[in-house]
Design a protein that fits this description.
Layout lengths: L2 H15 L10 H14 L3 E5 L2 H6 L15 H6 L4 E6 L7 H21 L4 E3 L3 H9 L3 E8 L8 H9 L2 E5 L23 H13 L2 E3 L5 H10 L5 E2 L16 H10 L2 E4 L3 H4 L1 H27 L6 H11 L9 H14 L4 E3 L19 H10 L4 H28 L2
Parallel strand pairs: 1-2, 2-4, 3-4, 4-5, 5-6, 7-8, 8-9
Length: 410
């Protein structure tokens, strides 16, 4: 084929596969009407909220009308949130002797809030639960375990966490486990060890989603190979738009889509915007030194500095860095859709686990504004429903089906 024809064909193909916003932008008024219709019926699911730390350490009540945090019942209502995965996270540096106890305390704190506010909240462990609670007008609360270090190399703990309601586990957090590598660690397992593959198999058998956020690239691909069910990235953004190891490359997004999984876009400013990330990098040593100084007296007493205090330090020392606009989240969604397809993208905000969110998307109440921006860019109502939660529900059902199949096998 002559070069000119090949070039023309390439341009035509690029137009055909380009994000739909290039073809059909809408006015703000039109977008608001579309988003309003969608939000009236859509099941909106955020796959990563770090609020359990506040529930336990600050004795925070989710019904607090003047909540200083990013997540509360009033804010979830305003944000049309149908379901939220609360992240059970324990610092990788937490003393091993009380690590499991800390995780259990966080789980108890979540259950206590659901019991206290049973008129508006309901605990969910399946896709059917989420849909039932949505019909009842309640917010579904689910839980994910953020870091494989919390199973202490014991598969039986996976079963225990599952029985307590945990429905996904991030294979690592900010440090390697003995069986999987973190994106923040040096190569050790170079993927998954034999035990790491056993972890993925047990999660499949239980019906627990395998979460690839925080893992190294080789571990990501090893997890896809090891899992019989679709894999998720519960709170990761696009590396092509912001070059962070925690984000996913285009190759990873395509592989995740082929696997049937979903990338849930993270809202942390430093994972969205290169300018913010570069500015933050300059003050990170100062933040680390200030946190270490605050940790010292706690350590002498055998205690841990509360996460909320670390957040306040980081927020104060980074206050001079302008947060990116909310449109950056929409840019990452656009990119993930273009690379992986509309059926493989969702939202995993990381609210209450981040100290900087985009302007206009500061807390969970602002989710409708993101829906409006996506509608303005040309997404259909069906596509919005998929991004806001439908894709994640589909993966949950596939994971549940895989578990039933595996449990029926001899």
């Amino acid at each position: 084929m002559p070069f000119a024809r090949r070039a023309a064909l390439a341009v035509l193909l690029s137009l055909l596969i380009a994000p739909r916003l290039r073809a059909a932008e809408r006015t703000r008024a039109e977008a608001e009407k579309i988003a309003a219709r969608v939000l009236e019926r859509a099941i909106v699911i955020d796959t990563h909220e770090d609020t359990p730390q506040m529930l336990l350490d600050d004795h925070y009540d989710l019904a607090e009308p003047a909540s200083p945090y990013m997540v509360s019942i009033p804010k979830m209502r305003q944000g049309h949130v149908s379901g939220a995965f609360f992240a059970v996270w324990v610092d990788v540096k937490w003393p091993e002797g009380t690590l499991i106890q800390r995780a259990l305390d966080l789980i108890d704190a979540v259950h206590e809030q659901v019991a206290r506010h049973g008129d508006v909240l309901g605990f969910a462990t399946t896709a059917d639960d989420v849909e039932r609670l949505h019909r009842e007008g309640k917010i579904a609360i689910l839980m994910g375990l953020e870091g494989g270090h919390m199973i202490r190399n014991d598969l039986r703990l996976l079963d225990d966490y599952y029985r307590l309601g945990i429905r996904y586990m991030s294979l690592t957090h900010t440090a390697n486990t003995d069986w999987a590598d973190s994106s923040a660690g040096k190569p050790q397992a170079n993927g998954l060890t034999d035990f790491g593959r056993q972890v993925a198999e047990r999660m499949n058998r239980l019906g627990m989603l395998v979460d690839s956020s925080h893992v190294s690239d080789p571990t990501f691909y090893a997890a896809l190979a090891a899992s019989r069910a679709p894999v998720i990235a519960s709170h990761s953004s696009c590396r092509a738009l912001c070059d962070q190891k925690r984000n996913m490359s285009d190759e990873m997004i395509r592989a995740l889509a082929k696997n049937g999984g979903v990338i849930q876009i993270n809202f942390f400013s430093a994972f969205l915007d290169p300018a913010y990330a570069a500015a933050l990098k300059k003050v990170e040593p100062q933040i680390a030194a200030a946190v270490a100084a605050e940790r010292a007296p706690y350590a002498r007493e055998g205690r841990q500095l509360p996460w909320t205090e670390e957040q306040k330090i980081a927020q104060k020392l980074s206050a001079g860095i302008p947060a990116p606009p909310m449109e950056r989240v929409a840019d990452h969604i656009d990119h993930a859709v273009q690379v992986g397809g509309i059926d493989h993208v969702g939202i995993g905000s990381d609210f209450d686990g981040i100290f900087s969110a985009p302007c206009g998307l500061e807390d969970v109440s602002k989710i409708p504004d993101l829906a409006i921006e996506l509608a303005r860019r040309g997404y259909s109502e069906e596509d919005l429903e998929k991004i806001l939660g439908g894709n994640l529900l589909r993966v949950m059902r596939q994971v549940e089906q895989t578990a039933r199949q595996m449990q029926s096998e001899k």
